[in-house]
Amino acid sequence: MGPIALFDKSFLQSLSLVEAVFFDHFFLSVICPLFYVETLADLEKHVREGRTPEQEVGIIADKVPEMSGYPCAYHIDLGGATLFGANIPLNGRIPTAGGRPVRLDGKSGFVHEESAAAQAFKRWQEREFLVVERHFARTWRTALNNVDLAKIAAGIRAMGVTPGTCRSLEDAKAIVDRFLERDGAAAIDQLNLALGLFEIPPEYDFHLFGRWTTQGRASLRRFAPYAAHVVAVELFFRIALGAALIGTADANNRTDIGYLFYVPFCHVFVSSDNLHRRCAPHFLRTDQSFVWGHDLKADLNRLMNVYAGRPEEEKEQGLMRLAPTPPPDDQGVVAQLWDRHFSSWRQRATEAPPPRNPKEDAELLAHINRLSDAPSLPRNEMDFDPADAQFVQIQRRVTKRRGGWWQLPKDLKG
User: Fold this and answer.
1) pTM for the whole thing?
2) CB-CB contact of 40 with 140 (8 Å)
3) Residue 360: its pLDDT value, please?
């Protein structure tokens, strides 16, 4: 385990398979829906000579984190839920979708079976694609190609935002902040913008505006913090287009900016995209890091070479035993990120790992199986806030050996 990292497609694409294995090992990854959609859309994209689109998508799927990857819920669903009072923490926790509420031994939580996205990536690794996926890829690629960023920019300039009135990305963010911090009647425009962005049907307006009134007609940032974050990113992008701070020639900018919708759910955002490098710092908390993808890639490769020299019998114990942390005296990019977000790890890294206890292992496995088999708790019997769940079990299929490295012990059965 390690810091929670949000990555974009450009970063994962740049990695070799072995580097991807080490990224999966040292970080807990946020797999956001846009990464899934972007990867799938490559089925309809012209790729480099000598490869088919299916091969290109399969190569990316091979690198997707499987040990520590957590599919994140869709930002439209999350934003809409916060408007109606859902508590979406914005402090580096990954909101997942689809879990079954269960209660076992007096404790309540969620069991997540293998996600649809994880199942899809497994199929894509075998170069298997469903008809519906091919249709969706074609639809997404067509929609992306039809994005008219110049038209959006022209509309923003007509509202008075121009290169003369907004000279920097800092200015663009300041305009957004001023707009979203206003309470009272001025916040109605914020709420109306959110209703459109999150596709809330008109029949819910009465309930939603009533809730807003009982909450003191607060600004969107106080009324629905995550919804306000998404609105802020969207407004920032449009203002930057109008002020010619972001180019209108590349339709991919529309998709790329969307990764910023998910930055509240990580400690580290890693990307090899210049748009992210310029824009992400304006939306990160002070306790978050932006990492240039090429720098992290180089350090993952270096660490791979460090561990490649270890005895074979040690490597056969699996990466979790071989390298539970980066080397305790290391000063590379990975170690520095662990320093910032896992401050006590160096002390723990010098301590010998506790010996395995077969009895405790068997008891833990039995408990995990009991959780998996526990019946779902009816939603009307849920008496706890999902954000306060006492446990979360996430099921996944993991390859024992990947990219030439044992992720799990060689002698592990099953």
Assistant:
1) 0.90
2) yes
3) 77
